[in-house]
Write a structure and sequence with these properties.
Elements: H1 9-13, H2 21-36, E1 39-44, H3 50-61, E2 64-69, H4 72-89, E3 96-98, H5 108-117, H6 123-138, H7 157-160, H8 179-189, E4 192-196, H9 197-206, E5 218-223, H10 229-236, E6 239-242, H11 243-260, H12 266-272, H13 274-285, E7 290-293, H14 294-298, H15 303-323, H16 329-349, E8 368-375, E9 378-385, H17 389-397, E10 402-407, H18 417-423, E11 429-433, H19 439-442, E12 443-446, H20 459-474, E13 478-481, H21 485-502, E14 508-510, H22 516-526, E15 530-533, E16 550-553, H23 564-575, H24 580-597, E17 608-612, H25 616-619, H26 623-628, E18 634-636, H27 639-647
Parallel strand pairs: 1-10, 1-11, 2-4, 2-5, 3-4, 5-10, 12-17, 12-18, 13-15, 13-16, 14-15, 16-17
Antiparallel strand pairs: 6-9, 7-8, 8-9
């Protein structure tokens, strides 16, 4: 395509634009897939320019295009920057729309109800409320992301936005002014619609979030950050009941009872009866965050009784609400929600053959895994399909349109077999384009010698001890990424003590001590900080330039074998005669490691050291397969080489 060449429209429109053969080749493959209305799985290394590589052919081909990304941050970047840039460079008349899940838009009804109620969780929320009221009056979109004065994690947001469960739909008095409906209308009329994966799959499964009318009309679907799809599909093709969901139901039912049936004393009592059931279930599960298989959970003292009590409370609430459902739309809606929740809890405990969420008459029989996720904030009861391959592939094959699945991490050494197997896309065309960066000159892979076994008690202490001289050489400017929160918390104290003893005063930022966006902003601005993080900092984090020059990874990111869903998948693979470690666990770890390592080099001028503190990378035969899946960095086990790497770098601060 001449679009990407010297003197082409992108070259003319973008200062500093460079021709990259990889970008052109990927764009050609995308164009072929769109013309053939076929699926394409495309891995594009950092710096390839994959966003333009799929946007250019999609816009040039025309028709309706849906682009789905991994996060709302990437959504905003696409809509506000990348898409307008490409459209304007190509001088195309394409119209653009941004569509988010309904919880991202202020709801006039729930805002008015919350303001009238006057019952807010905290004084801080009371200060936020007038700002949201003023925003709702002045905003054209109602997108809460545009209101910077109220933090994204503020407790008031669930009280002034809607969910699929508590939206009143056409019966709402504010229906004509609804921000969600305005966003959907704009999306229907636009040529290109930007969504995120959660919204995309919610619509595929629930036909609720505004895409149901878009999908039949579109000819191209682009799923960026596609490495997230197996997990996202598993979530949405399954069924969940969460403590937060039930607490929200209880709150909504209590408010509906006070406003729609004040004379009925039994209704608020039935609503408040849900809370003790939620708490007793949490107490029975213990304080330690973990994932527990259904059979093991039912063996825990107090858990079956707590589950029975919660089910009874939900049944009581559903019955009481049902008696007065006709008094108001909200009472009827809460009654339906309580009935559905009671049924979901009952199905989780005693599933019937037809109880599987997501089942379809055209689907082959599915094995389902039931398990509990115990989190710091509560608990989640999950029913998950053992495999989403048939469910997902049916969506692709039945659509008659192009599906472009792309990410920087989909293959292991150009082998896409695991990813294709997970999504049922064995016959899809695949393509792999390496990063144009000069990793041999820009980066160093350092595996420190004499590290203890990664499962030993002394491993985290050894990681901090080995990292300290590297941090001294780089002057801070580092991410330390850990595979578990336990290791992260231990490292925080160890590193703080070690820095104090060594007289080092780099700013220390720790996951959990602020939102991810706040921590990243501070990290970029400080210029010499050390940030400790776990899974949430392994991907979707972009810190170009000298502020990030070291990424330390404590151990190879093998998924914990006690994960019930993983254990069931490994058992199924073993039963089929496969090798679970080499066919599943190893490639999964390699792909995850590529994600973490990808934080280091983000531009053609970045330099840095990737430090992996796991001796298995060099001691085990399979280690070669893992490090060969990483970008082609120069490798060393000598600290002196690391120090020399930073030795001639200007402005390194100790």
């Amino acid at each position: 395509m001449s679009v990407f060449g010297p003197g082409g429209p992108l070259d003319r429109a973008l200062p500093g634009f460079r021709f990259r053969a990889q970008q052109l080749e990927m764009a050609q493959a995308v164009a072929q897939a769109i013309a053939a209305r076929a699926p394409l799985i495309a891995e594009a290394g950092t710096g390839t320019g994959k966003t333009f590589a799929y946007l250019v052919p999609a816009l040039l081909y025309g028709g309706k295009v849906i682009v789905s990304t991994g996060t709302k941050t990437l959504q905003d970047q696409l809509f506000q920057r990348d898409l307008p840039t490409v459209r304007d460079a190509l001088s195309l008349p394409a119209t653009l729309a941004l569509l988010k899940g309904r919880a991202n838009y202020v709801c006039h009804h729930h805002l008015a109800r919350t303001a009238a109620e006057g019952r807010l969780p905290s004084r801080e929320d009371s200060r936020h409320l007038p700002k949201i009221v003023a925003f709702a009056r002045a905003s054209d979109t109602g997108d809460r992301g545009e209101l910077a004065d109220v933090p994204e994690n503020a407790g008031i947001w669930p009280l002034v936005t809607s969910t699929r469960d508590n939206c009143l739909g056409g019966d709402c008095a504010h229906h004509a002014d609804c921000f969600v409906l305005k966003a959907r209308k704009a999306a229907l009329e636009a040529d290109v619609v930007v969504v995120n994966h959660h919204l995309f799959f919610a619509d595929v499964m629930l036909r609720d979030e505004g895409l149901a009318e878009l999908l039949p009309a579109c000819n191209t679907i682009v799923l960026d950050e596609a490495h997230q799809l197996p997990d996202t599909a598993t979530l949405f093709f399954g069924e969940q009941v969460t403590a937060g969901q039930l607490a929200e139901l209880a709150r909504d039912a209590e408010v509906a009872a006070r406003t729609g049936a004040r004379e009925v004393a039994e209704l608020p009592a039935a609503a408040t009866g849900i809370g003790p059931g939620i708490r007793k279930l949490r107490l029975a599960l213990g304080d330690t965050p973990m994932k527990i298989a259904q059979a093991a959970a039912l063996q825990r003292d107090g858990f079956p009784a707590a589950l029975d009590e919660l089910t009874a409370a939900l049944d009581r609430l559903a019955t009481e609400l049902g008696l007065f459902a006709e008094k108001s739309e909200e009472l009827g809606q809460c009654a339906a929600r309580a009935t559905a929740a009671a049924g979901a809890v009952a199905r989780w405990r005693d599933p019937t053959p037809e109880a599987n969420a997501g089942a379809d008459a055209d689907d082959p029989p599915q094995a389902w895994i039931r398990w509990v996720d115990v989190t710091p904030a509560g608990w989640q009861l999950h029913a998950s399909p053992l495999s989403v391959a048939s469910l997902f592939s049916r969506q692709v094959q039945a659509s008659g349109r192009a599906w472009i699945l792309t990410s920087a991490t989909l293959a292991v050494g150009r082998d896409f077999s695991l990813y294709q197997h997970e999504l049922g896309l064995a016959d899809a065309t695949t393509g792999c384009w390496d990063s144009p960066f000069d990793y041999a000159a820009q980066a160093l892979l350092y595996v420190p010698p004499d590290m203890p076994a990664p499962n030993s008690r002394e491993h985290t202490e050894a990681v901090v001890r080995a990292a300290l001289p590297v941090l001294r050489a780089s002057g801070g400017r580092a991410f330390l990424l850990f595979t578990t929160l336990r290791a992260l918390n231990a490292a925080r104290d160890l590193l703080a003590d070690a820095m104090r003893d060594a007289g080092l005063d780099w700013p220390l930022l720790v996951q959990g001590e602020g939102s991810r966006s706040e921590l990243l902003t501070r990290f970029r601005e400080l210029g010499n900080a050390v940030l400790l993080g776990s899974q949430s900092f392994w991907e979707g984090v972009d810190v170009p330039g000298g502020a990030l020059s070291v990424v330390v990874i404590d151990k190879l990111p093998f998924a914990p074998p006690d994960d019930p869903l993983l254990a069931a998948r490994l058992d199924a693979l073993r039963a089929e005669g496969g090798n679970p470690f080499f066919e599943y666990q190893l490639p999964q770890a390699a792909i995850s490691l590529k994600q973490g390592a990808g934080r280091l080099i983000r531009t053609e001028t970045d330099r840095g050291v990737l430090m992996i503190c796991d001796p298995r990378l060099v001691d085990k035969p399979y280690g070669r397969r893992i490090w060969r899946s990483l970008p082609p960095m120069r490798r060393t086990r000598e600290l002196a080489e690391v120090e020399a790497f930073f030795g001639d770098e200007p402005n390194v601060r100790g």
